[in-house]
Amino acid sequence: MSQEEMGRRALLVGAGCAALAMLGACGSRGEESPPGPKPGDVLAPTSGVPVGGGLLTQTGVLVLQLHEGQFTAYSAVCPHQSYLVRPPDSDGIMTCTGHQSKFRASDGVRVDGPALGNLVPVAVKVSGADVVRA
Ligand code: FES
């Protein structure tokens, strides 16, 4: 296997772990990750998510309301070294607390910094007055 193939494979494994960490299925350094939200779990009250911004939940999910009544979410776990990413600023950019990688709030795509991947989307829906994991 070439060096490039090994790097690509490591990247895919890392991205997979970030996604699986949301489900509590992937550990780091031999430790078990805290369980992520399961379908139906309440992430935040809709009233707690600012329009044009977002909220970082205790389960490591960034819940966003970029347009009134439209909720989206990403894992806040940075694909670089797993620090948490902050909710979007007024320019719609979410910045990692670790090494300042930057991601677009509109689609989670990395726009700057050492992270090589994008943020992992989390499916959400509104149920009553809450945003829940779909
Ligand atoms: S952990 Fe996010 S940029 Fe390093």
UniProtKB/TrEMBL annotation:
Protein's UniProt keywords contain Aminoacyl-tRNA synthetase: no
PROSITE patterns reported for this sequence: RIESKE
Domain Rieske: 40-133
Keywords: 2Fe-2S, Iron, Iron-sulfur, Metal-binding
InterPro entries the UniProt entry points to: Rieske_2Fe-2S, Rieske_2Fe-2S_sf
Any GO MF annotation of the entry: 2 iron, 2 sulfur cluster binding
Region of interest: Disordered: 28-49
UniProt-recorded name of the protein: Rieske domain-containing protein
Organism: Rhizocola hellebori
